[in-house]
Amino acid sequence: MPEGKFCNKTPIQTEEALLSLLSDTRGTQYYEEMKSLEVNKEDLWNRIQKTCKSRMRTWLDICAHCGLCADSCFLYLVNDRDPEQVPSRKIQSMLRTMIEKKGDVTTEFMIECMNTAWSKCTCCSRCAQFCPHGIDMGQMNSYIRGLLFSQGFVPWEMKIGSGMHRVYRAQMDVTTEDWVETCEWMAEENEEEWPGLEIPVDKEGADIMYTCNAREPKHYPEDLAEAAILFHIAGENWTVPSEGWEQTSLTMFAGDWEGAKMQVDNVYAAIERLKPKRVIGTECGHAHRATVVEGPYWAGRASGKPPAPYIHYVQWVAEALRTGKLKIDPSKRIKELVTLQDSCNYVRNHGLAEITREIMSYMVEPGYFVEMTPCKEYNYCCGGGGGFNGIGRYRQQRNKALQTKRDQILATGAKLVISPCHNCWDAIRDLEEEYEIGIRWSFLKPLLIGMVEIPEHLQPKE
Hints:
By secondary structure, this protein is mainly alpha-helical. The protein folds into three domains: 39-154, Fumarate Reductase Iron-sulfur Protein, Chain B, domain 2, CATH 1.10.1060; 167-318, no CATH class; 327-449, Rossmann fold, CATH 3.40.50. It contains 22 helices and seven strands. The strands form two sheets. It has a four-stranded parallel β-sheet. A three-stranded parallel β-sheet has the order 5-6-7. The longest helix has 18 residues, at 257-274. It is globular, with a radius of gyration of 22 Å.
């Protein structure tokens, strides 16, 4: 079975292979080679038989084709109610066909499945809330991505992302040395303004172990510094691990389930090595899903839980405000219309909607917080989730998908959007660049630093 130099069934395992794939600008040769990539039909059918078990098959069989999932999908709505965008139709056209044909499908079919799985669904699972049978088509699409990845039919950027995790145990080329040096640099950079500020590395038995998104040390090191400053103000006993600090999972977006297990195992090994009382993850939705919701099952943990209690950053912020570890200066509360982006992965899929509203009650002056419509568990995806943000092949479709969030924000009248999730933050940034609606967007950390009361002993001396 011919396989290309770049497009093949072998996951990226080495830095050399990763750099080679990166050299193929925009995946030009990669996608050309994909047109000739043959399907290993026997392997595909064997994989389906081994992994497509009772729940998935039941969901396929009980779908009544009622269409109630259609209006739940923002991609269906924004694409003029194209029947090809109905969630149930997308799933049935891919998985049902693979099963009925017992894996005997063509290269052209697999490429079309790839286009559907990554550009017509963000795995947000909003449709599951409207299905009368409780069918979760977001989960089913994730499963289909895994089948496609195993055959080499995966977007160029997703194969790169998977390779980054396999080579660096991070979604970007941030080595252990890079990470530790960034921690030291950010502590030194801010110690004059924040006396006693530290970013402790590999401290055993701390109350908190903090994990983050590799984009922070790579492109936004100030985010790491802001987390450190808020822990410092709150008087927390905390640490970061030298290895296992990266909690995101582009492997999950890519359908690389073996790579996803490798990634979460790395984080869990850090927890078991440092034995913190609990772990706090950064403002990232899919990172939380990968390490807290899905990760325990990838790692084969019978409890269905990580090795230590593991919470999202919004949970720590709400707790710190509630207990007085962080106190908001009333004069600095937000006094302009502000709205909040609900991340699919920790709001809809992990029930943290009220936690984020509690935070808003502390940060925003009464009367200035405006909800999107719909909101909370029913909010729409940011428009760039599930890897959609980062795939150049589908940029035009992604930009169109941003219109739903654009219209939601415009309807609130708010000029500030608080977005405690990296993917959502990116999508809203790109939304503003694309449509120029005159908004600002922010994580929680910089806003909090600008409004919390600073204990006297932490204030710089004159």
